[in-house]
Amino acid sequence: MARMNVKQESKKVVSDSAVAFPSPSVMSQNKPVSRDWSTQMQSIRFNMNTLWLITRNDLKSIVLPETAFGIFSALSGPLLTTNDQPSLITILARIPQVILWNWMNLLIFHIANQRLPASILEDSVNKPWRALPSRRLTPDSARRLLLGVIPVVFLSTLHLGGVEETVLMKVLTWIYNDLSGADENYIVRNLINCAGFMCYSSGATIVAAGYGSHALNPRAHIGLCIVGAIIFSTLQMQDMADVEGDKARGRRTSPLVHGDGVARWSIALPVALWSVVCPWFWNLGMWGWAASLVAGGVLGGEGVGTAWCRGGQGDVEGLVWVDDDVVSAAAVQRL
Predict the structure, then answer these.
(1) How far is residue 191's CA from residue 228's CA, in Å, rounded to a whole number?
(2) Using CA atoms, how far apart are residues 319 and 306, in angstroms rounded to an integer?
């Protein structure tokens, strides 16, 4: 009887197992139909394009020049870092890491900025192709995206470097966006932005030089102050093309407060000044001076010339990269 009971129990277990774990054919019949590969790829492309649209406007004004600044500063070796013998191959191999660090921090700022009602109103006038005014994202989905991106970026910087710069930029982002630090006074806005650019330049250099192996030296910190001064004195360049949107949201920028002509001269004169200060600070030779002066002359002259030709109206297509003098100086310093 005991053996019969054991056999009966064994059969019962097998029977229960059959119920608990149906055959693959049964599972395939009960399994929900998944999206096909084409649909999944379309979803991935859509999401990637959304991220591209969020950061697109500042790729050429932040990611690319700050990446160049970080790489060239790392290549300068003892001029700006604690690395006495920088390796060209090693530093160039870090370009993807520097680009990623800059882009991730830019992504946080833009999500935090573009999700706000005033920013959506401004972008609907100036940049209707962005993710929120084009209804690719809702403000609530942007908020959830931001909640996910922030910890990912912070954990990434623990490996890449630039942790302090990333944390400080999050504070600046909060002041700029949630406390409307950029709306009421353009001087305060310039101060916030100059601190942000200093963080980008510092972090990019740390990543390019090799986090944990090398750091910035005292001369680099003076150079970062020059970067901040350049941004503070010429940031109104970015406001020239956004006049209508800034007016719609009630932001008091230099062109709206002082007029187009005054704002353009306030760009041209500092650009001329920094075109001299930068090569002097970096102690460049003839070609370095020539590169800086030519770049400054083109930028400043085009800005003032545009004001004369257009009577103070229109966008500024020819004015690009406020910190171009710094990047060109860092590039030439190794010649």
Answers:
(1) 8
(2) 10
